[in-house]
Structure formats: C-alpha cells, structure tokens
Amino acid sequence: MAKRVVPETARRRRRPTKQGQVLTHGLIVETALRMLHEHGAAGLSARRLGLALGADASTIYRYFRGMDDLVLAIADELFGHAVNRFEPTGDWRGDLRELGLRIHHAYLAHPQAALLTASRVTGRPNEVAGGRDDPGDPAGGGVRG
Fold first, then answer.
1. Whether 74 contacts 116, CB under 8 Å
2. pLDDT of res. 36
3. pTM higher than the cut 0.90
4. How far, rounded to the nearest angstrom, does the alpha carbon of residue 103 sit from its chain's CA centroid?
5. How far is C-alpha 109 from the geometric centre of its chain's CA atoms?
6. Pairwise CA distance, residues 29 & 34, whole Å
7. How many CB atoms lie within 10 A of CB 60?
8. Nearest-5° angle of CA 77, CA 82, CA 85?
9. pLDDT of 118-130, one tens digit each?
10. DSSP track, 35-56
C-alpha cells in the first residue's frame, strides 16, 4: 500500500524551535549552505542540521522527503542566485555565456555545495526559469537563436 502523503501545509512546523525560530524551507536551506561552507559535505547530516536549527533531526523530514531532496533544494537555491535579475538580450551566445558565468560564480561562492549539486538536474523552479525567455510561457524554449 502506498504511503499516505501529508499535504505540504500540514507538514510545516508552527511552533518556534529551542532557539525561538519558526522553521521555513528557506531557513533550512540557508543553514545547510552555511554548514556546507563551514564543515564540508561530510558535515551535512539531518542530525547536525537539526542541532544547528535548534530542532530535532526528524523535523527536517517535515520539509524535505530526505537528504537527497534537501541537496536538490540547495542546487535550486544556487540556480536562484545565478538567474536572479538575468535578462536575456536576444544574443543566444552572449546569453548562454552570461548564464554559464553566473552559475560558475554561484558555485565559486559555495564550493562545497557545488561538489554536491553540480552534476544534478533538479527540475525545480529556479533551474527551469533559467532556461526560459518567459517563465510564464509553457513553450519556454530557453535561449533562442
């Protein structure tokens, strides 16, 4: 029998942690990025992340299906940094170069996260939006030439 999926709104913690913070998806990803920067990939675990957030390790699983899902969220965050305020010019070569440089810069800013995520395809909003001229256009198409 399939596992019952709890609706996303019901998964979220509403009570503050021991440190007085109400956890959010973004806060967990931000903390995970900081932990990767400070301790490397080997230092990222649900237990350590829970300790850093002042919450039980199992709390992470209210927001992510597993550590792999968290890694994909980290990758999407890096893409978000890369495509933030990117405006295509219409020159596909120039646009592709600009996107590549932006992703490279995001990876240089978070090298440990880059090691975990550079070879991953997330299919998440920031990654998908980076390849489209108009994120609202279902035909998208990306950089056109």
1. yes
2. 95
3. no
4. 13
5. 14
6. 9
7. 23
8. 110
9. 887 878 887 777 6
10. HHHHH-GGG--HHHHHHHHTS-
